[in-house]
Sequence to fold (370 residues):
Amino acid sequence: MPDALVVGAGIVGAACAYRLAEAGLKVVVLEKEATFAQGSTGKSAAGVRVQFSEPLNILLSYHSILEYQRIPEASYRPIGYLFLVPEALREAQEEALATQRALGVPVEKLSLKKAQSHVPFREEGLAYATFGPMDGVIDPHGVTAHYLREARRLGARVRFSEPLISARREKGVWRAKTPKGEVAASFLLLCTGAWTGEVGKRLGLEIPIRPVRRMVFATTPAPFPHAFPLTIDLATGFYLRSEGARVLMGRSNPDEPPGFSEGMDWRWLAPTLEAGLSRFPFLEGLALDRRASWWGYYEMTPDANPILGFVEEGLLVAAGFSGHGVQQAAMVGRLMAEEVVHGKARSLDITPFRLHRFREGRFLKEKGIV
Fold:
């Protein structure tokens, strides 16, 4: 009988499986798709950053980026994140910057003139910018493949095309039902991303994680050389970055209803471009490539922060990252292994991200959600 059953073979589930196997546990991974990284992981914009306001988010990302730097398959590129800070958010961003610096992560405060050296923009309404030199992008597929390969090397079994139908706890053991039979394990870990709310219902649990669709728009190759960092206009939430000769861009739709809506919402292109052109006029000279654009899901919680750790006896959740799961997966894998092996995460205090905060009516106020 395996010690731990991990549900989900995205980047978070893969990292957890690897670290559990590394700790000497017998691990089985269940994945409903035919291969790995087919959910939010594979649709991610691939950014990694330390520029958050909540200390735990900062540290989860910081330690994860340090790990990605050591994984060749991650193809880590420190292109940086540039935050353009409007006057209205001057004080809030100053507080976030102070927290980041107190934790020892590298973030710089830039004048608008210096920020212009990274990407050209209109300065109206802005106070200053912040830049994270260790922020950047990775290859989520490469990282996920690395973790699953290492987990298998240590004895883990990965079973594709095998969704979790239901599970129940009997005599200290979780008995999970799949289309191929029953799998029993002492611990059950849900790393099911945007589907975690639905999976929770199969276990008779209310887990407040819902899918929300997000779009990434890609241009055709630009007629000029560029190497833009992932740049975010905090006044509107519009972001862009270079991807080879293309420019990727997007903006979260605050009116997008939760649910498994599918396909590109081309109606959201006009509001996205309107926000982008107001700050980055050079975008007007670029053409959109509809075939290169894509959509995926954010896995949203009520406060846009993840749920981590035990939620019931033998049952753990690592999901609800609300757009920053790729950024934090590496450290989350380590912490979930500590939860199982030691009964509680040791490297970082994950209390702020435990499920009971919602049951107690406590909501975190992360200011760095994009």
Observations:
- The longest helix spans residues 325-342.
